[in-house]
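Query form — protein Molybdenum transport system permease

QUESTION: What is the three-dimensional structure of this chain?
INPUT:
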Amino acid sequence: MEESFFQTMKLTFELAGITTLILLFIGIPLAYYLSQTKSKFKPAIEALVSMPLVLPPSVLGFYLLLAFSPQNAFGAWLDRVFDVKLVFSFEGLVIASIIFSLPFMVHPIQSGFSSLSSSLSEASYTLGKSKMATLWYVLLPNIKPSLLSASVITFAHTVGEFGVVLMIGGNIAGETKVASIAIYDEVEALNYGVANQYALTLFIITFSILLLVYAINKNMIRSELR
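ANSWER: The structure tokens for Molybdenum transport system permease are given below.
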């Protein structure tokens, strides 16, 4: 296999890993808020979070491209104040992936919080624990299968993303070219053998990860039922 293959795969998994890690920090408090709040704005927030599920990736990528472009207000402000250019950069890919993968992290965790009995929180508050301590030491340990599922689905979804990545990152080898773009490139060039290397590698890795997650979740559920 060529060096470019390993470089592209490394970049792909770096992007997925960083996106998943950042989304864990964003998704947990957001999912907790959505599972607890009775605000009249909850449907609007849930709709915004869920938008990437139904919106064509090229649409989201197009608007992010406009927003990040130095030719427009926000992109020009980032360039002028922070000397940051997000279009066709790895940093831009990370931000776009965070936005596009947000529902894949939030929804499983929100379902996990919603399935917990309110008596858990009430007992913790009765013992004098703060909301933060209750969340960290009581609620999160009880939704470990949801946290694991959310992380893995987010990681796998980021690995396979194409439309948003192409719009924001383009196709710069070593900087923004990830596996899904490489497969498209190789097929377009009729290099089916190389395309198969990328596709088969992604297939085996994602299948192995999902198999591991289902096995771990099964063991977790069994141990909780004992």
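ADDITIONAL NOTE: The two ends are 48 Å apart (CA to CA).
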